[in-house]
Amino acid sequence: MGRPHPGGLAQVGRGAVVRGRLAGKGALLVHGTLRGEVSLEGDLVVAAGGHLGEGRVRAGRLRVEGRAEGAFRILGPLEITAGGEVRGEVEAARLDASPDGLLDARLRVGFPRPGPGPS
Predict the structure, then answer these.
(1) What is d(CA 107, CA 2) in angstroms, rounded to the nearest whole number?
(2) With contact defined as beta carbons under 8 Å apart, do 70 and 57 qualify?
(3) What contacts 102, CB < 8 A, 6 or more positions away?
(4) Do 111 and 93 touch, CB atoms closer than 8 A?
(5) How far, in Å, CA of 25 to CA of 86, rounded?
(6) For residue range 71-118, what is the model confidence (pLDDT) as tens digits?
(7) Number of domains comprising the chain
(8) Which domain holds residue 35?
(9) Residue 113 needs a FRET pair 20 to 30 A away by CA distance; which of 36, 91, 93, 107 works?
(10) Does residue 1 belong to any structural domain of this protein?
(11) Is 115 within the bounds of a domain?
(12) In a domain, 28, yes or no
């Protein structure tokens, strides 16, 4: 998330638990727990200690330093850092994974951008 985001930056703080639907144009940084549907045009970052789960996620980019579970459609790169964990169903334009990260998913990389998300 090193570049500026025209839609701004939202955060889910440590210890917070958010459930429901979230949509926007900016970036989202998750330090706590987020469960539900997420649709972002910008970056989604699950920080170390953060948890994203039990839902469908569509984002421009996804960086996972913590844990992420669900169905993901990432229009840009999915990045899994050392200690990051991704489980579920994943479609991403590109995958960048640390050897010390975990990916346990049905995976599709390099898909065409238009069209519906994973079913």
Answers:
(1) 26
(2) yes
(3) 80, 84, 85, 86, 87
(4) yes
(5) 23
(6) 999 999 999 999 999 999 999 999 999 999 999 999 999 975 555 555
(7) 1
(8) 9-109
(9) 36
(10) no
(11) no
(12) yes
1 Cβ neighbours under 8 A, 6+ residues apart: 9, 27, 29, 43, 45, 63
Q: What is the 3-state secondary structure (H, E, C) of the chain?
A: CCCCCCCCEEEECCCCEEEEEEEECCEEEECCEEEEEEEECCEEEECCCCEEEEEEEEECEEEECCEEEEEEEEEEEEEECCCCEEEEEEEEEEEEECCCCEEEEEEEECCCCCCCCCC
Tokens of 111: 């898909």
Residue range 4-39, pLDDT digits in tens: 556 688 899 999 999 999 999 999 999 999 999 999
The reply to whether 116 falls in a domain is no
